[in-house]
Prior knowledge:
- This protein has strands at residues 4-10, 13-19, 25-30, 35-42, 48-56, 60-71.
- By secondary structure, it is mostly beta strands.
- The chain has a domain at 24-74.
- A four-stranded antiparallel beta sheet has the order 3-4-5-6, with no helix packed on it.
- It starts with a strand and ends with a strand.
Amino acid sequence: MSRFYASIKGNRGIATRQGSKGSGIEGHIRGWDIGARVICYVDDNGNDAIRITLTGGSNRPSSIKDLGTFRNPL
């Protein structure tokens, strides 16, 4: 079983990906001017962590606002 798992659905159906403790997993879902980047990883204490960032979408893909990092246990 994978440490991290992601799925996404678009006009060509569903695609899934797996991530390990070493690789983590990352996704950037976006429109032209706004998007969200989600990164899942294992922190230095061995806890699952998720970082969520708003971006400027495809037009400006760099991060524009960090919404926070959340860890398990919450």
